[in-house]
Description:
The chain is α+β, with helices and mostly antiparallel strands.
Amino acid sequence: MPSSWRAALFPTTVIVMVAVALAGIGLLATRSDRPPGIEIFLPTPTATPELAAYITGAVVSPGVYTIDIESRIADLIRAAGGETTDADLNSINLS
């Protein structure tokens, strides 16, 4: 190897090592200690579907009532003011 090439190798190696060290320090300085955030998507609340139901017979207030689609016959009877004294709730399916 020529001596001029060997003389240039040492300073070049030092410059490259200093540049790598500075780049590493820069990366460490900009690194965040916090983990990345978690994004949670909640379902959009929707209105419970309703339906109109007619009830008559041995209830306090027969008529048409709007009830949730998941309601039962017992809920419809309650909406109509409840059963009268002559009602026989054992003869019907309340669900």
